[in-house]
Specification:
By secondary structure, this protein is α+β, with helices and mostly antiparallel strands. It has nine helices and nine strands.
């Protein structure tokens, strides 16, 4: 992994430490030193020093030679979401939406070719995918991803799709670039996107954009249903209007939050 940075200011040691943190996931919540070294491509002595440093900082704990993340890592993601004001703004609107649809709702943002969940209000239903804040999925087979990709200009869209996915989940089928481009044109025209069991069997969702004060798409909000319980027609006819209302209110609240004074007036 050495030398991957392009800038003379690139700090390889920091990059390696982040590699260690991100090698833990829902499929690998605990790893031995050998596991970490293999997953990150680091030499064992390097992996050991990084793990012990992270342990001393409180981000990792060790039990009988097995390492796992601690709740302190949540502060890293929470700081990002809090800096946007997104969760505090979205939560009451999402809770209202879930109370009307009785289905889970999430918000995601684009990171390369993936979506990353930044807010979620869930209902206790069993679906084939586990979703929580920080979950990462490829964008093209998801309703939120289609909305976010549709909000990009041609250059940014090409750059996003050229970025390799870092999601541990593979879609049920790969997308054709021409078909995706045509679908995104439709998403832009109608203002919402549908994903019907494209990412995983039984998962059907509809998503709409969340915009900032300038009108730019900053996030996507969805309603997710179990395909065996809720038809596409009901999802679009009944849930979509409620979703559009909630997302519109989040957009308006976000624009208001962004326009707030950031400094106090002199006494």
């Amino acid at each position: 992994m050495a030398g991957r940075g392009q800038s003379p200011d690139f700090v390889e040691a920091l990059a390696r430490g982040l590699d260690v943190l991100t090698c833990f996931d829902s499929a690998h919540p605990a790893r031995s030193l050998s596991d970490v070294a293999a997953a990150t491509g680091l030499a064992r002595p390097t992996a050991r020093r990084l793990l012990l440093t992270l342990e001393e900082l409180g981000f990792v704990r060790q039990t009988d030679g097995v390492f796992a993340l601690t709740p302190r890592v949540l502060a890293l993601g929470t700081a990002y979401v809090s800096s946007l004001g997104l969760w505090d703004i979205a939560r009451p609107r999402m809770e209202w939406l879930v109370s009307r649809t009785h289905e889970s709702s999430s918000m995601a943002q684009l990171d390369g070719s993936d979506i990353v969940y930044v807010a979620r209000v869930a209902v206790p239903k069993i679906i084939s995918l586990r979703v929580e804040i920080g979950t990462r999925f490829p964008s093209p087979p998801t309703s939120q991803g289609k909305v976010l990709l549709a909000g990009l200009d041609d250059d940014r869209l090409a750059a996003a799709l050229a970025t390799p996915s870092r999601s541990p989940v593979s879609p049920r089928r790969h997308w054709d670039p021409e078909a995706l481009a045509e679908e995104l044109r439709g998403v832009r025209a109608r203002g919402w996107a549908l994903a019907d069991e494209e990412l995983a069997a039984g998962v059907r969702s509809v998503a709409v954009p969340v915009r900032d004060g300038s009108g730019a798409v900053r996030a996507a909000m969805n309603v997710t249903v179990h395909a065996a319980e809720t038809s596409t027609e009901r999802l679009v006819d009944d849930h979509l209007p409620l979703l559009q209302r909630a997302a519109g209110e989040v957009s308006a609240d976000w624009a208001l939050w962004e326009s707030r004074p950031t400094t106090e007036a002199p006494a």
